[in-house]
Write a structure and sequence with these properties.
Layout (H helix, E strand, L loop, with lengths): L1 H45 L14 H14 L6 H5 L1 H8 L2 H4 L8 H24 L3 H16 L1 H33 L4 H11 L3 H14 L5 H10 L4 H16 L4 H57 L1
Length: 314
């Protein structure tokens, strides 16, 4: 009886101490998290340009890291030896891609090379540690694969940003052309119609159109140069033709409504063709997981009993 009472006493004491310890740990974790949030808010207030989603800061962790690295190098930080070695390759590779991806002036060739070198080293170390859990050969393989994947992460992110920007233009171009042509048919000038599109549509292309319109309204550039720069930043042949036809019509005073409506029809047809192409490619892409995952399981399910019977027969 006394032994049972003592056991219950020890269990109660252990539960009490466990609860107290858990409460202390939860309070400590909550305070540490609150302190980390305060430090993060302080850094965001001190360096607002480093926040993801801020003006001039590209979306995505990898591109954000490359932008921060470019900014630090521009402020005088010393690059690593690997970053200095890859600077010439980065300058050749980046070229016009930075403008088409919307990171011109934000991700520099030096920042691209330095970020690729750092991410490659970090991924190589992570791959080596993961491979070391199994064997020495896997350590080397994991190091090589990690280094290649980390070094290629920034170029892949820039390529994805370029494709996303092209798709956003494809979605918004016909909308912009129809809005401007409707404004012209209502008696508004081209500048006012273009301004209304930039002010009343919350899409990236509308914001860039508004920035171009402000640049020529403030006298920072001529209207023709601003329109051509906008078209060149996307690298779209259709947008380049539209902006060139717009500048020519405004210069010579010819009718612009028919040109914009025809271009809007072409933009819709081009988008429809791209969507149909992606839809047609979907079944082909679905064959890969089907063949790699579902088909082997079905073969095992169908042929497994037959193989077991054959093995028992021998």
């Amino acid at each position: 009886m006394e032994a049972g009472t003592a056991a219950w006493g020890f269990a109660a004491a252990a539960a009490l101490f466990g609860g107290a310890g858990g409460w202390c740990l939860s309070v400590t974790w909550a305070r540490a998290r609150e302190a980390a949030l305060r430090r993060r808010r302080g850094r965001a207030r001190a360096f607002p340009a480093d926040r993801e989603g801020a003006p001039g800061m590209p979306q995505g962790r990898v591109l954000g890291y490359a932008a921060k690295t470019s900014r630090r190098l521009a402020l005088g930080a010393a690059p690593s030896p690997l970053g200095r070695a890859g600077r010439r390759w980065a300058a050749r590779w980046l070229g016009g891609r930075s403008r088409r991806a919307g990171v011109e002036g934000v991700v520099t060739p030096e920042g691209l090379a330095e970020a690729s070198a750092r991410l490659g080293c970090a991924a190589a170390a992570a791959g080596a540690l993961a491979g070391a859990l199994f064997s020495a050969e896997l350590t080397l393989i994991g190091c090589v694969i990690g280094a290649a994947a980390g070094a290629a992460s920034v170029p892949r992110a820039i390529g994805r940003a370029e494709r996303r920007r092209a798709e956003a233009l494809e979605r918004s171009l016909s909308e912009m052309l129809e809005t401007v042509s409707l404004g012209l048919r209502s008696g508004l000038s081209f500048d006012r119609s273009f301004q209304l599109y930039g002010e009343h549509f919350d899409v990236p292309f509308a914001r860039e159109c508004a920035a171009a319109q402000r640049s020529w309204s403030l006298g920072l550039a001529t209207r023709e140069d601003a329109l051509r720069d906008l078209a060149a930043s996307y690298g779209s042949p259709l947008l380049a033709r539209v902006m060139e036809a717009t500048a020519r019509s405004l210069r010579f005073g010819s009718s612009l409504v028919e040109v914009l409506e025809s271009a809007a029809a072409d933009a819709r047809a081009e988008r429809r063709a791209h969507v149909e192409e992606r839809v047609a490619k979907a079944p082909v892409k679905m064959m890969v997981p089907t063949g790699a995952l579902i088909l082997p399981a079905m073969l095992l399910l169908v042929l497994g009993p037959v193989l077991l019977e054959l093995m028992e027969g021998f």
